[in-house]
């Protein structure tokens, strides 16, 4: 493992940088030893010795939804195992895999995943973490063992973390008993609140954010949801709250049968949904749900490559934006780990659904990649509950430098370089450097742990597959 990077102040001069309001020229970016931006000054002249960016500088992308352990079976469920495969048949395979992972294997998998994320333009991640107990469903001697493995992985890789322990209690609406494949996930509400109390100092020591993830309405009964939210408020009333919701039409149908309401409508009527909340997927809403959910201030957590991989359906992006809804991007099951590719998949999904082009452009930005990047950073920052909102004073110094010498980018203006990065390159290949919290994490497109972490990942995956 390389020596830890000593925190230090720094600066970078960019001929072009994407600021929250749009593109700017000749930008001097400065940060302090804590990794906080102290000045972002367009129209500057670089002082002698100030490093120059190799291309346009972009805000680091927050990844608002991750199940780290699922990276290890990416590509291993792409075969027909039933007459008609679906999310639910995929979930059965996922449960089999989750039942065997050890704390050490989880840490190895997550470390490599977080290295991959940094190399692909993500600078922070919201980890929706529901592996809590051992393979038999018993608590470890140290009840926070698997959560701490994720904290260590994020610390080693150097990615910012919002840790979201998952409350999971039932297998379906109406309090159905959990199944065998869910035994590692199950916690009482009291146990979850004790876990949050244990994790809070560890998160604070690492600069990580701690929140809560009620898994879904089918997995958390109404009383437990109410009590968990009240307990979270007593610990931290500003903590992020994330929930899977309306991902599958079968879930919508089951919720209607249970309550007479669609999932998002039920949640809005029975929980204090506001800007702290991230509604993950929210794929299947009716017009009233789109309007009401957007008005709540919650972020829609879109995971285009996973939603495509699982056959979930396509989010109505036009309806959400018409209601002034905020949104961000997650890589979820990590069938793809690439910030630019999620942007591309989001745009292409909307083109297929609407039979129009350049759907993601907006009134402020004609370039699709520019408009989508800025919106995804804004929504992802809100979901993360951390000051990672782009290149602005007071935000964390998280940014990505494109490689202007890349064949897909050479000779283009900065907005066109970003467009080519998203739509006309191999995406990761056009990245030159990534900085998180003011510290260089990726240089010449490689993280210093790339080889060590990838080898540990392959070894962990091989052991897991040998047990099948």
Plain-language structure description:
The longest helix has 18 residues. 37% of the residues lie in helices and 19% in strands. The two termini are 31 Å apart. Helix 2 packs parallel to helix 3 and helix 3 runs parallel beside helix 4. Helix 3 links the parallel strand 6 and strand 7. The mean pLDDT is 95. Strands 5, 6, 7, 8 and 9 form a 5-stranded parallel sheet that branches. The protein has a 4-stranded antiparallel sheet with strand order 4-14-15-16. Strands 10-11-12-13 form a 4-stranded parallel sheet.
Q: What is the ordering of alpha helices and beta strands?
A: EEEEEHHEHEHEEHEHHEHEHHEHHEHEEH
Overall geometry comes to globular
Q: What Rg do the Cα atoms give?
A: 21 Å
Q: N-to-C terminal Cα separation, in Å?
A: 31 Å
Query: Biggest sheet, in brief?
Result: 5 strands, parallel
Structural class: alpha/beta
- Determine the strand fraction and express it as a percent band: 15-25%
Number of helices: 14
How much helicity do the residues have? 25-40%
Strands, count: 16
* Sequence stretches where pLDDT stays below 50 over 5 or more residues: none
Mean pLDDT: 95
Which terms summarize this structure?
alpha/beta; four-stranded antiparallel beta sheet; five-stranded parallel beta sheet; 37% helix; 468 residues
């Amino acid at each position: 493992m390389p020596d830890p990077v000593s925190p230090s102040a720094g600066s970078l001069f960019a001929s072009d940088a994407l600021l929250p309001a749009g593109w700017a020229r000749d930008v001097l970016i400065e940060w302090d030893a804590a990794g906080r931006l102290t000045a972002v000054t367009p129209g500057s002249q670089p002082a002698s010795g100030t490093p120059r960016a190799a291309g346009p500088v972009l805000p680091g992308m927050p990844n608002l939804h991750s199940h780290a352990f699922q990276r290890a079976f990416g590509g291993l469920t792409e075969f027909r195992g039933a007459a008609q495969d679906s999310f639910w048949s995929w979930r059965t395979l996922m449960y089999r895999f989750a039942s065997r992972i050890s704390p050490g294997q989880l840490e190895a998998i997550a470390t490599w995943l977080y290295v991959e994320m940094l190399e692909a333009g993500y600078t922070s991640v919201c980890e929706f973490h529901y592996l809590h107990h051992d393979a038999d469903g018993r608590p470890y001697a140290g009840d926070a063992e698997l959560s701490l493995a994720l904290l260590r992985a994020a610390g080693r890789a150097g990615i910012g973390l919002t840790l979201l322990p998952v409350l999971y209690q039932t297998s379906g609406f109406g309090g159905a008993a959990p199944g065998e494949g869910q035994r590692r996930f199950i916690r009482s509400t009291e146990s979850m609140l004790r876990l949050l109390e244990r994790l809070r100092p560890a998160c604070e020591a690492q600069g990580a954010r701690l929140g809560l993830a009620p898994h879904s309405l089918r997995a958390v009964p109404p009383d437990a949801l109410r009590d968990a939210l009240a307990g979270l408020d007593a610990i931290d009333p500003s903590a992020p709250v994330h929930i899977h919701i309306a991902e599958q039409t079968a879930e919508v149908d089951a919720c209607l049968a249970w309550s007479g309401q669609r999932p998002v409508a039920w949640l809005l009527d029975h929980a204090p949904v506001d800007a702290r909340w991230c509604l993950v997927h929210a794929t299947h809403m009716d017009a009233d749900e789109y309007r009401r959910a957007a008005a709540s201030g919650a972020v829609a957590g879109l995971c285009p490559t996973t939603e495509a991989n699982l056959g979930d359906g396509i989010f109505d992006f036009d309806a959400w934006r018409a209601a002034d809804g905020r949104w961000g991007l997650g890589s979820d099951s990590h069938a793809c780990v690439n910030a630019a590719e999620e942007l591309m998949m989001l745009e292409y999904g909307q083109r297929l659904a609407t039979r129009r082009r350049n759907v993601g452009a907006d009134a402020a930005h004609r370039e699709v990649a520019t408009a989508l990047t800025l919106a995804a950073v804004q929504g992802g920052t809100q979901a993360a509950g951390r000051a990672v909102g782009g290149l602005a004073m007071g935000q964390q110094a998280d940014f990505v430098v494109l490689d202007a010498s890349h064949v897909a980018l050479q000779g283009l203006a900065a907005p066109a370089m970003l467009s080519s990065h998203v739509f006309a390159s191999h995406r990761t290949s056009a990245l030159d450097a990534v900085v998180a919290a003011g510290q260089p994490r990726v240089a010449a497109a490689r993280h210093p742990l790339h080889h060590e972490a990838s080898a540990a990942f392959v070894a962990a995956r091989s052991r897991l597959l040998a047990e099948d």
